[in-house]
Amino acid sequence: MNFTAKLRARRVEARNRKAVARAIDMASTPAMRHELMAIAQAQVSSLR
Q1: Cβ(23)–Cβ(43) below 8 Å
Q2: What is the pTM of this model?
Q3: In the chain, what are the domain boundaries?
Q4: Nearest-angstrom CA–CA distance, 19 and 40
Q5: Is the dihedral angle over the CA atoms 30, 36, 40, 41 positive or is it negative?
Q6: At what angle do helices 3-25 and 30-47 cross, to 10 degrees?
Q7: Is the alpha carbon torsion for 18, 14, 39, 44 positive or negative?
Q8: Nearby residues of 20 by Cβ (< 8 Å), 6 or more positions away
Q9: For residues 36 and 21, is the Cβ–Cβ distance under 8 A?
Q10: In a structure prediction context, what are the per-residue pLDDT tens digits for the chain, which is 48 residues long?
Q11: Cα-flanking dihedrals φ and ψ of residue 4, to 5°?
């Protein structure tokens, strides 16, 4: 993977993290917030 591709991938990851954080902050109920957190954690653990 070249430098440009790595940089692009890092930007995409940062954008996704910000979107997930925003969704968690804007969740209408605590249950929805916990569900979003669980989904985010599952995705992070599957990437490693």
Answers
A1: no
A2: 0.71
A3: 17-47
A4: 11
A5: positive
A6: 160
A7: negative
A8: 36, 40
A9: no
A10: 799 999 999 999 899 889 999 999 999 999 999 999 998 888 876 655
A11: -65, -40
